[in-house]
Amino acid sequence: MTASPSDSGVTGWLDGVVFFVALLATALALGDALAHLFELPNKIDLPREHYFIVQGIYRGWAQLAYVLAVQFLAILAAIILARHRPRVRWLAVAALLGLIAAQAVFWAYTQPANAATANWTLQPANWEALRRQWEYSHAAGAIFQLLSMGALIGAALARGR
After folding, report:
1. Which of 22, 107, 121, 139 has an alpha carbon 20 to 30 Å from 101's alpha carbon atom?
2. Per-residue pLDDT at 8
3. How many whole angstroms separate alpha carbon 70 and alpha carbon 25?
4. Domain range holding 130?
5. Is 156 exposed, middle or buried (0-12, 13-18, 19+ CB in 10 A)?
6. What is the pLDDT of residue 10?
7. Which of 76, 99, 101, 98 is nearest to 89 (CA)?
8. pTM for the whole structure
9. DSSP class of residue 8?
10. Residue 107's closest CA among 70, 130, 141, 71?
């Protein structure tokens, strides 16, 4: 019986580092996503002036794109390192699909609302529809990030089998 690539010292160490980074980046991204999800019930019915004031707390959150880039690269590296372990690989692929789905929702729904409101500094006539689009797209993104985290945890646990 031959050892799998993950059994060698350097590859096993690298595999552990990659999964650590993937889990950490996914946890950070999930924290952001869950913040949006949990604030939704308290914000969705705010009057216009209050809603636009509250939206100001998100200035600078675009910097989280770096975390998403690290998350993407680390999950991709985990998939590559797990090429000889199908259970780990497919769970890591599921984690990547969760991230991609969250980003697809963001770029299809959230970003257009950001653009239409100049990141919530302009108040267009259809601001209420844009608010619903923004809030519910963030909620969907949070669910996809949660699925990504669950799949990645599963992949990390499957490594030990």
Report:
1. 121
2. 58
3. 6
4. 5-159
5. buried
6. 63
7. 76
8. 0.90
9. S
10. 141
